[in-house]
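Exercise: predict the fold of this chain.
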Amino acid sequence: MRRTTIRVTWTGLLAGALLAAQACAPPGGGSADEGPIKIGFILPVTGPFAALGQYMGEGLELYLEQNDSELGGRPVEVLRADTKGDPTVMLTQARRLVEREQVDFLFGPLSAAEGAALVPFLERSQIAAIYPIASTNDLTQRTISDYVARTGWSSSQTTHPFGEYAYE
């Protein structure tokens, strides 16, 4: 049962990632519609969030393994970048992936601080990002971006119902 839940979640996330990659493609097709889809996977491999980053990586690997490393019939190339859980390091890595490696979109980051720090870069670069975990409320309340597809929850979602219950 748990494996099915993980598969459905990653299937949804990566389906959204494929849509983001298609949205980022230049008009008229061209080479963006050929070859592998390049995903810039920004996650903490070292530092205080490394264990959670490992789980993110394993989830993506499981999805790709179950789907022959393809999205929409195209092969997938994943370029990983260690954020160390640090927003400054994450921004440097995101710039490298977008500007030098020319990824189609970003997947991640993990922490709310990294997610908030990434938004201005996404806006300037006009590149999409799939946020599977970053849960800061601001991402969908105050700093909403057309370039962020958030597939998880917000921090207050899990505690708000209990707060109402306690109040009443």
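Check your answer against the key: The longest strand covers residues 74-82.
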